[in-house]
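anyone else get weird line breaks when pasting these?? whatever heres mine. first is seq + tokens for prot A
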Amino acid sequence: MEGAQPPRAAEPTTPFLRKANTPPLHEEANTVVIAVVIALVFLTLLAVLVVIVVYLYKNKGSYLTYEQPAAETDVSVPMEDASSGGKEEYFI
């Protein structure tokens, strides 16, 4: 009986007992690199969107005109005499 080997244990037959089929290490690294690149793209787009919104909020309604400012003169338009008793019209 010197050459007798001990009986081997039966291989597990249930999915829980079988060794999980793990992908090789380089495939996991590729997946991580792809996930990081996608995350960086989304963060960059989000940052650009925030910068655009802040810029538009701060510059809301501000614009430059290159026209000459109207000359402020004290020339008043002569008005009719309001004491004449005529009917007055008011435009609202």
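and prot B, same format (seq, then tokens)
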Amino acid sequence: MTAALEARGLGKKYGKRWALSDCTLDLPAGRVIGLVGPNGAGKTTLLNLAVGQLAPSAGSIRVLGGRPADGPGQLARVGFVAQDTPTYAGLSVADHLRLGARLNPGWDDAIARERLERLGLDPARRAGKLSGGQRAQLALTLGIAKRPELLILDEPVAALDPLARREFLQHLMEAAVEHSLSVVLSSHLVSDLERTCDYLVVLVDSRVRVAGDVDDLLATHHRLTGPRRDPATLPGDQQVVSESHTDRQSTLIVRSEGAIHDPAWTVGQVGLEDLVLAYMSDTPTRSTLEAVR
């Protein structure tokens, strides 16, 4: 199966500043992929490169086996909901559907109208009169009705209240299953990704810190608590992701494919939020960067 996205040494530079640097990724198709990181980490830059709104300064990127925005055929395969869930305030909901039909050769009007009816959106109402949640749902409807193979969403729920956010994500998951979509969802809210995503990418300071299947990542990360110890003394197969120490105690988040047998440690499970924060909070070591290659 063709990968949803492949990047090799990908970078984007603005003046002297790298917004994205040395990004190497293989994102599988047929998955709901969460892209998480702090503000300014490079998430939006990566997604804009993926949809062809930006050109790389270094490296290469392929989406569904082709170059981003390389002609009408490639454009039709990828849907995009930008960070501000763009709609046109002066146009009605029905106007948006007519515009979508004109711009997208694979447009499925039946899907669009069925979603609007299910959501209770009045086709005659102007987008400027809709709530934030309703505008987000309209933008999602336009993305789905395009009938893409890959749907990319850049923090589409960041400005929504918790109820509207939950409803949006629920509808996204239903659409992904119903229409066999590959999805890349960017967010800095780990709780959103925990409910929706089965593959995770953590991006920090413009670099990929970790990427993989969520279940595999949770199974191979552990919290170790025990008497204070220098992490350098751990076995070579235990990669230290983050560490904290008191005078008497050490707490480590480690990545290890095997079981932890040292009786000095109390071994605990790591939740998705703990895992993400561990990779976000500390400066990556050389071994950490090599581990995501």
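btw re prot B: The chain is about 35% helix and 30% strand. Residues 216-291 form one domain.
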